[in-house]
Write a structure and sequence with these properties.
Elements (H helix, E strand, L loop, with lengths): L2 H10 L1 H38 L5 H12 L8 H5 L1 H23 L8
Helix pairs in contact: 2-3
Amino acid sequence: MHRSTIHEWLNTNPAFSAALAEARSQYAAQLGDEMKELSATALETLRTLLQDPQSSSAVRLRTALAILGRRDWSLPADAERNPERNNDRDLDRALDREIKQQLLALGSDPTRP
């Protein structure tokens, strides 16, 4: 079937447009569920790498930096209201900056996977 046919159906057949929108919505929901499952597996893998004494220090360090470097995660809302936690976050950020600077000084790029 040629794509021009599909475009015409989208423009002239409301039932087809609705069915396509529903299929896209279901597909997006399915992908979202799969990403949640994969994220849980990935987090467990990271936890294992960080806690495994057999992991090299380089692997544990890169794992920690990968976690700390994530820009799309945030602390729970109650941590935002707790000034003591805010001080801890400031300390974590300072330590993270210092580690990255030391890695750069040693010739390693902490932002590279």
